[in-house]
Design brief:
The chain has 2 domains: 2-53, no CATH class; 78-142. The protein contains 5 helices and 6 strands, in the order αααβββββααβ. It has helices at residues 2-12, 18-27, 34-52, 91-111, 115-137, and strands at 55-57, 64-66, 78-80, 82-84, 87-89, 140-142. Residues 1-16 have low confidence and may be disordered.
Length: 143
């Protein structure tokens, strides 16, 4: 632990390696070997470089992927908005079944002009909120 403390003091004065100090503060909660720390730091730097370009990293297998890719070639993970059974839904399906269909049901229920229509519109508001929440979160990798 003394070596890590000395390393932090040595690199704090050097602005070029300030990322290294941030990395140590984030990932060193318990004493670890210096070689493991260097390996994790190199992976950390590669991750930052990949994010600067149009590259992303699969959270499951750590393969480099282009941002446009929706399926990881290494582990077959898919990028989407919502997982239903074994299918992963894209943005268009979520908008259709999460916003348009419930909204049309609400319009039909309100046109009935009775108490049942009010109950149906309140209940159908929940899928709309759910869909808006997932659209705000954005797409993510799922297996």
């Amino acid at each position: 632990m003394l070596i890590v403390g000395f390393t932090i003091k040595k690199f704090v004065s050097n602005r070029i390696l300030s990322n290294y100090c941030n990395f140590i503060q984030l990932y060193c909660e318990k004493p670890i070997r210096i070689s493991n720390l260097v390996d994790k730091y190199l992976f950390f730097i590669q991750t930052k470089k990949g994010q600067e370009n149009n590259m992303s990293i699969c959270p499951f297998c750590q393969n480099d992927l282009e941002k446009k890719m929706t399926i990881c070639l290494g582990c077959n993970a898919k990028k989407g908005y919502l997982k239903v059974s074994n299918d992963i839904l894209g943005k268009n399906v979520l908008i259709f079944f999460g916003l348009i269909v419930p909204f049309m049901i609400i319009l039909y229920a309100i046109s009935a002009q009775n108490l049942f229509g009010v109950y149906v519109s309140i209940i159908m508001g929940l899928p709309i909120l759910f869909a808006i929440f997932h659209l705000i979160l954005g797409d993510r990798w799922m297996k």
